[in-house]
Design the sequence.
């Protein structure tokens, strides 16, 4: 295969790897029965008229399986952090003693678990679509190489076969992550 085809495949693989990274981050924000600081990765706090990621404004730790503690670096951010937590879609009610914000995670109901599984499946499908879009873009590039006469038909076919294998491998990886997250969510 030509260097151009190799570059197209390498670029597609890098983009697909990034799509899997995004999927992992998305899955980490879905709440399970256990406390996990990654749940707060997508929470932003309005402080001094700017939106700041919570994990850059405080230390988040898990002293117990269903309890998180948040220690703000700036004590003036207490109310803003509490408000951001209450307004989030996590369904938590933070309490504070002036030094630490405690977030107790209530036991998930069966209905809530099913909602989270549905959300996880939606995020997985979004990731699969992203990977397929990357594949389509790379295939268009391969077709253009062949049309312009920069690569032979056999080389392009081999490139497309490699691209399909790459796509299949990455989609399976997403399915594996989803299966793991589903098991975690349905575990009581």
Sequence:
């Amino acid at each position: 295969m030509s260097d151009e085809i190799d570059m197209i495949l390498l670029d597609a693989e890098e983009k697909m790897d990034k799509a899997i990274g995004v999927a992992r981050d998305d899955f980490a924000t879905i709440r399970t029965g256990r406390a996990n600081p990654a749940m707060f990765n997508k929470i932003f706090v309005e402080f001094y008229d700017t939106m700041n990621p919570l994990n850059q404004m405080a230390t988040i730790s898990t002293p117990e399986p269903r309890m998180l503690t948040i220690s703000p670096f700036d004590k003036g951010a207490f109310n803003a952090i509490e408000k951001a937590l209450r307004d989030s879609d996590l369904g938590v009610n933070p309490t504070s003693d002036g030094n630490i914000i405690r977030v107790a995670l209530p036991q998930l109901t069966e209905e809530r678990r099913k909602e989270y599984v549905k959300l996880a499946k939606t995020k997985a499908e979004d990731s699969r679509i992203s990977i397929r879009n990357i594949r389509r873009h790379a295939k268009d590039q391969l077709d253009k190489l062949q049309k312009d006469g920069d690569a032979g038909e056999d080389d392009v076919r081999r490139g497309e076969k490699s691209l399909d294998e790459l796509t299949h491998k990455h989609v399976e990886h997403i399915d594996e992550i989803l299966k793991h997250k589903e098991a975690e969510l349905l575990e009581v």
Q: What stands out?
A: The chain has a mean pLDDT of 83.
